[in-house]
Design a protein that fits this description.
The chain contains 16 helices and 18 strands. By secondary structure, it is an alpha+beta fold. The chain is elongated, with a radius of gyration of 29 Å.
């Protein structure tokens, strides 16, 4: 449809708006007392046949036949057909009915019957105009295929594509199931600040803002971790926060600058406890919401039945990339192992950083079925406790599903002196231009100096998990209003 045609349609709808008002009809009505949703009527026809109902919804189709006509109303539960005729409405009301357009929202009172073709219908005895639509809806088969337009105008996407609405209903159910699981396990839900004077908890570039009254810079949080650990210091034993976090990073099918995570912390636990929690929680949610532990993601069958396999990062590299770092203990030796690979490394890249790069480039793509990858290098794990038998690695794991990292967990570092040294190294990186390196958080160090119990911590990317559960190819499909570049 051309821009000129759309403009003409909009102009005609404005004219109808004025005509309604001239007839004494307010085109943006008051509350309408609904007695039944569309789905209730269609599923319980025998109970409501011949009875009066009041329904409300948006007109999605109209078929006029002289002195009568059919229309389909869509509410949050589905669609129901209505039938309107001059003999039932009277001349004045029927003339108003003829002014209605596809997209208008109306309330209808009438009796339920079934047409000769067997379609459950409400025979209109009177109707109320609740909201006059001034813009035409996209054509059902031609108007809303532009995927970016669907993200930009999600309200139209939801109107025209009922299956999209189902994705976000599932999202709500999955999040509620997660809360139920954690609450039943004795974890307390807490809230921590969204704006931080010092940002930390992840390697990510923050969004920066400014507080006028305090005359200070603030950052939108990139993680909830450091404040939650302060609560462990304060004496809480089992806590979690399900929250929005913000990272000033690129946009992709797996990344949105604003996303949702859950972080869970438990005193006197370790990363083995967090592995057990992760596989149990995700499998329980899957069973509760979908009735099965098997899901299909982008054509791949995934079996979420615990226990999930466990591989150290070095074992995974040896298995999938056919590279062995066990004998490469020094940085130059690690560089020798990867000399034939195309990696972005230089003379300052450490052994641990090289190992992590190899894993990201050559291993992650193979991790289709659920798996825990254990023992990350210390250089990329500044908040995790070092392994006793090999301090170059940490008690850290990430869980992968369909080649996507969905969970990250540590045996938490609770040694304030070690933590301060690691923050200082991160600060050096930041000073050298790495905007994703951690800042020095003196207050967090001070909290550790009062004593934080041994603890396990877990973070799960909610949006990525929901992508997997709803078979969505992009993170933008599971976020109602994803971040997009301005037109």
């Amino acid at each position: 449809m051309s821009e000129e045609s759309i403009h003409e349609l909009i102009q005609r709808r404005h004219e109808k708006l004025e005509e309604f008002r001239q007839r004494g009809v307010e085109p943006y009505g008051e509350k309408y007392q609904v007695s039944h949703r569309a789905q209730e009527i269609t599923e319980n026809f025998e109970e409501v046949e011949g009875k009066e109902v009041k329904v409300s919804g948006r007109i999605m189709t109209m078929r006029r036949h002289g002195k009568a006509g059919f229309a389909n109303l869509q509410d949050e539960s589905g669609q129901i057909q209505i039938y309107a005729r001059l003999d039932d409405l009277g001349e004045e009301s029927f003339e108003c009915y003829k002014l209605l357009d596809i997209g208008d929202i109306i309330g209808v009172r009438g009796k339920v019957f079934k047409t000769r073709k067997g379609e459950i219908t409400v025979s209109t005895e009177d109707f109320n105009l609740l909201a006059k639509s001034l813009r035409p809806l996209p054509e059902k088969w031609h108007g809303l295929r532009d995927i970016e337009l669907r993200y930009r105008q999600r309200y139209l996407d939801l109107i025209m594509n009922p299956e999209v609405k189902e994705v976000f209903i599932l999202r709500s159910r999955i999040i509620q199931a997660m809360r139920n699981y954690l609450n039943e396990k004795g974890y307390l839900e807490v809230e921590t600040p969204m704006m931080h004077g010092v940002t930390g908890g992840a390697n990510a570039r923050p969004f920066k803002t400014y507080h006028n009254a305090l005359d200070m810079d603030l950052y939108l949080r990139i993680a909830t971790e450091l404040h939650l650990k302060r609560l462990l210091v304060g004496g809480y034993g089992k806590i979690y926060e399900l929250a929005k976090v913000f990272r000033n990073e690129g946009i992709s099918t797996r990344h949105n600058p604003e996303f949702t995570s859950v972080e869970v912390y438990e005193a006197n636990a370790d990363y083995y406890d967090m592995m057990a929690l992760t596989e149990d929680m995700i499998s329980v949610i899957c069973q509760d919401v979908f009735g099965s532990l098997n899901i299909t993601y982008q054509g791949k069958e995934l079996d979420l039945t615990p226990p999930w396999p466990r591989l150290t990062m070095l074992e995974a590299i040896k298995k999938y990339a056919n590279l062995d770092f066990t004998g490469a203990k020094r940085d130059e030796e690690a560089r020798e192992v990867v000399k034939d690979l195309k990696l972005n490394i230089d003379k300052n890249t450490t052994r641990g950083e090289i190992i992590n790069l190899v894993f990201e480039e050559y291993v992650e793509k193979h991790l289709d079925q659920p798996v825990f990858i254990l023992d990350y290098p210390i250089e990329v794990s500044p908040l995790a406790k070092s392994k006793k038998d090999d301090p170059a690695f940490t008690y850290r794991f990430e869980a992968f599903l369909a080649s996507s990292e969905i969970a990250n967990a540590f045996t938490e570092l609770n040694d304030p002196l070690d933590q301060k040294e690691r923050f200082l190294k991160q600060a050096e990186k930041r000073a050298a231009g790495d905007e994703e390196a951690h800042m020095m958080d003196d207050d967090f160090i001070a909290s550790l100096e009062y004593g934080m119990p041994p603890a396990g911590g877990l973070g799960i990317g909610i949006d990525r998990l929901i992508m997997l559960f709803t078979d969505a190819p992009s993170i933008r499909d599971v976020i109602l209003f994803p971040t997009l570049r301005p037109r």
